[in-house]
């Protein structure tokens, strides 16, 4: 499982010692994007929805598309816009408005949403993100584990094999038996004003074997 290091990294000078790692750069804190694209193994461009939700502000999604669009080439990819506490209709409407190529983006399935929506997303997209939410907002507790197991059971029984990134639950995703391909911790993609952990506490060394390969086309896609 690939681990993404969230930016900004403190102290700032530590970032220069981290070429070859995988990075998460948020639309809400975008100033390290150029360096990460030049020196990172891969970059996940986060839509910033969670940060905006915690602040009670809205995101200009057209500006997000303009920001991340030029960076989308293998192995870099972006998390598509989502409504953290929205219903399935609101999140589906955002996906219908997506102008970016599907090969380089991933929609979010929120754990409180139906398994039918997960099945539909897995049919249509080669890469997905799981987001903890609603009654399953606490990674690692019994409700969360049960929901994750139900989601993977559905994917396995249906033969659907998208690449799945677990948002903000790296520890729990890594400890379980589930075949997540990517993960990051919630404290990794932080806004500049938040207290951040030191780079030494948040980084691991990854070699060429952890380069981000291309996801295969979903056999269930049209």
Short synopsis of the structure:
The protein is α/β, with parallel strands linked by helices.
Mean residue pLDDT: 83
Instruction: Give the overall shape.
Output: globular
Largest sheet: 5 strands, parallel
Give the strand line-up of the largest sheet.
Answer: 1-10-9-8-7
Taking Cα atoms only, what radius of gyration do you get, to the nearest Å?
16 Å
Number of separate helices? 8
Distance between the termini: 28 Å
The stretches of 5 or more residues where confidence is low (pLDDT under 50) are: 185-211
Q: Which CATH architecture is right? A: Alpha-Beta Barrel
User: What is the name of the CATH topology?
Assistant: TIM Barrel
Strand content: 5-15%
Structural class: alpha/beta
Order of helices and strands: EEEHEHHEHEEHEHEHEH
Question: What count of structural domains?
Answer: 1
